[in-house]
């Protein structure tokens, strides 16, 4: 494998010091002269018709500068799936109807936050309450309350995948297992609440600073909802305190900030409270999953029939993608010669679910992996062996959907079994102790252009200077995941430079090259990285030409950028420093600076992704027999993210994933009363904290992904999936309680421990 | 002449509304978390050796975070004339010596302004006073106190120009006139005092926001003084409240802000007080001008011998350029077959003089024009006739220095005579009333690369979008003169777009294309404009190709961008909208956005400038016999700035020039006691105010400058020159007092009215 100088080294994240020093400016830190503070009035009802809104008292309040309702705004629906305009079902403020508790009804901008809050209390809304529905089964029955007139069935998206012959597959199966799994909603719980600040600039344009994962998407959708031209909107992503999928759409406050800035001529800022975030924020899709799997006696998989109903809440949001993907994830990890999937995205009168770390995988794979563990038990096989027997390998196809390229899945399973001393340890467990396994596969960005962009999926511009530095410009959005750092590493490696030689500007739609689809689906390292490489190679070609000419090199010589030099390969004597080479090209171009643009758009990569990551995880738990409390003693993880760009960064992703996985498995949940979320703060919404984190061992099972930059692929989201099934299996092995409805609470364990401790 | 759609139309300045609304953020408006406030300790002595500095008490003061002196900083001298490093004579903080009252000795950064001020008072500096010299004659005598060891003569720059045979010329002259003129220092008096804010960014780089005319120059010089790489410095020019030449160098506070931000890790901001600005700020060069001119009997000029001593103050600053230019301006306006110039830039123990609107012309042309008026009187000719007889015309050369291309000088003289009813009015004046004339020529940017840049002199990048908008990026610096507006007009015209279709980003060294030398010497419209045109033509070529192909056009067809369309010339049916054409190109490039870069570097244009502006001005005055107070009744101006890009903008420049010209002629002066400036506020430093402004008529004598964008050339500085000689001549005609030492104060008039009113 290639020897790298920068890739594979532990690098501190680009934003680490500024964040640690308190110098990083998040959106809410920004203040502009004459700035107004916005607040949003939200529906107290889960389903109602708006009969009348009276804003007169609010408008008259001293300090209030602007009040808007759905009546005042352009009636333009938006949504990320621009390729299918029918899926765009949301107005920035409710028009005629509200569909969930928290639905945005009106917005106020005032000279201070308190006045804005007070004004909200002065708005009188007359509602005509409608019957509401909170359950996917009920919502998809005939006669159920209808949320959207355009969609009388409440099923807004249907997605089917089928290959092989499912009936024949089951007919040929020796052992068939069918289960229903109910997986629940959890919160992104990013530390920085959503915030947006809009300013009307001197030309009537709008600049929007927003805590977003998708500057380009916000730019485009904001333009269409405001009836402005895309490039009259500039979206800047300041430092962002996490997103996890919860900040990847145009949102009401972004629209209202811009709309009200235009209306008042003054900057307007909205920042959500934590209560608003929990009460009304996007969340991971709850899903009702019915999975039927057929095996041969020897454990060979023959067929899988997967039906998933996604509880989408009141609007589509990123639900179409989740619907699309959970069926694809259902076909991953193992070879299913005969496969059928039917996914339905169902409206209910709850806060919309949307993208969240894993994007359909944690739900779908909880079912897959738990069912594999059940099957192994019933077939009398070791779960590791059963997996190894069926594991996907490089070259495997999901017909018409994807081909698996690099694949370290089998090695990951073997490695995690070895690390955890799987066989031996399983046998030596005491009552109340359990060991369990879970696996995952995940995408490195999506290839299906649902946003219908006319630009490359990722783009990069590189400016090279005679002082030996380069400036990398890209619209990618570092939201704390470390993408700026990874892209700098890729560029440093390719140009033979050091990290400190690179300035990066990212996430500004006016200043960086069109376009980048944003930070989601673990796409940035691969797609942004490929765009960087494309641009870097154009820079290199120019430098190589100049150095070749200077040293009168034989045309067959290979050149390299290495150690800050541009030289004949392995011949530092036949070369100059990077800066000198730049100066040579610049002089030859009569002073013109060296600039190159590059881009990446996946082509001929099926419908899902250019590359899949894989991995396996083993959890060891101890369950208290009296309280049912689960203590995770240790986690072992082996995963294949292709080439590891930044070990420290991968470790960060891994720790974060385990923290989220623990919460998903054991403690996080929205406590709902009908459509009302009851736990709206960090005390009542229980997340795993630092002291809950188990120790762990990790192995990077490196492969080389041909489609990825320097062989890299995803590492940020796949690991969100295996933790819950691994813990669930461990709990089963400890207690006999097999969880099919997350989370695995002490109550459920105590109730489910039919046999007592094994 | 070509019909324009946008050029020649009155356009509101790009920054007007933001400034009027109070939404424009100037450097001092910027605040960053943890920001420190800087203050500068200045020398109370005009010339002294620094024996010792004790900063211990200042450093110990609560709230003080950093104290630096000349001992702490890298010993790197700087100055704008990088091509001749010997001219770089300044340290950011005094090293070993102070050379004028106000010379920067130390800097403090503290948590608030008051603490920083208090800390200054705690710094103990032990000086050994040296003899000082305040006069150019005294300073250039042998044995005079020496300011800089490297320059024992105190004459830091010598500039000679000679062509023809000066001795022969005078021998052939029928009438020879020799005069000495003493012109004085005046202040730029920009409304926004200098301010700089530096931040250490996450990669150890520096971002500097500064009220500057020259972001690129500050970037480069800051890098060299800090020992950093150029591109590790980013200079951003926020809104700027005027410069007039006073903000075109790296200055102490810019260095200290950056140096102290690096040292403390915290943002540091310096903002000068008005008192500091007046006490120590740059100013227009005082000059001692000896001019000897020879004429034939009929008024034909034969020879001119010009000697100028520039009072440079303590450092070179932009003095070398002023020395260079005042000799060139001496050779302008009229045809001197035999010409000799010797300019000397002399150090004195006063605040450094530097560039100021006109850059050597107001001084040099005050002598030229006053002497022309004297000669006309003595030769018994009408001053207008004498000028017409000798006026330069298109094609005239200053040997080895410049060729005059477009030239509306004669037309300007004729026009201003006609407008002011010159002949008739001169005869009808009552005692105490006077009419006088002054003329000018000025450069449209310099071609002599004293900054030794390796980049084009101006550059532009244009990004074109399918929504019909374009984004123009340029490093040019709009400091209130309206250059952003002019560049947008040029682009709008060339691409057939409207002003609102164009976004401009300017004056940011990291984000805009390398490079632009800044706003000085009336260079931006011509040089920046040419760079914009160069880029725009590359955009057009792509659009034309796509539209040609779409309509299957005969290859001989000409196409045009007009009225928002790209079409066969004059055939709107054979074309598409601008945005559609962009989309066509973009699709053909598989989504890649359209981007083009352009640049301009003057070549083969001699040593001075690519193009000269010309004009003439007539002033009518009334002088009170008892008080000597001059009232300017009216001004008539006819000028040739090539194509008028923005009449409103030109009018703004004209009004500003007259306001400054009035002050230069009549009231502005630094009252000095040795090296100490005594009038350090707007009450004591007397500028013309709105109520002092005379009514006026203006004629744009349009020519078409082949080297200028759409035929345009300078309009911002030339008009700073004619006002003083015109008023001076009018005062002479009203009172018999001929002023040879500006300003024309009532005292001088009363003293000089030898004959009483004529």
Protein architecture, described:
Two copies of one chain form a homodimer. Chain A is of the alpha+beta class and 758 residues long. Chain A has four domains: 182 residues, Aldehyde Oxidoreductase, domain 3; 158 residues, Aldehyde oxidase/xanthine dehydrogenase, molybdopterin binding domain (Aldehyde Oxidoreductase, domain 4, 2-Layer Sandwich); 198 residues, Aldehyde Oxidoreductase, domain 4 (2-Layer Sandwich), CATH 3.30.365.10; 144 residues, Aldehyde Oxidoreductase, domain 4. Helices cover 28% and strands 25% of the residues of chain A. Chain A is built from 19 helices and 30 strands. In chain A, the strands form eight sheets. In chain A, strands 3-5-1-12-9-10-11 form a seven-stranded mixed beta sheet, sandwiched between helices. In chain A, a hairpin with a 2-residue loop joins strand 23 and strand 24. In chain A, helix 6 packs across helix 7, helix 10 packs parallel to helix 18 and helix 17 crosses helix 18. The first copy, chain A, is globular and about 80 Å long. The model of chain A has no long low-confidence stretch (mean pLDDT 97). At the A-B interface, helix 1, helix 16 and strand 25 of A face helix 1, helix 16 and strand 25 of B.
Which terms would index this structure?
homodimer; 758 residues; alpha+beta; Aldehyde Oxidoreductase, domain 3; Aldehyde Oxidoreductase, domain 4; 4 domains; 7-stranded mixed sheet; 5-stranded mixed sheet
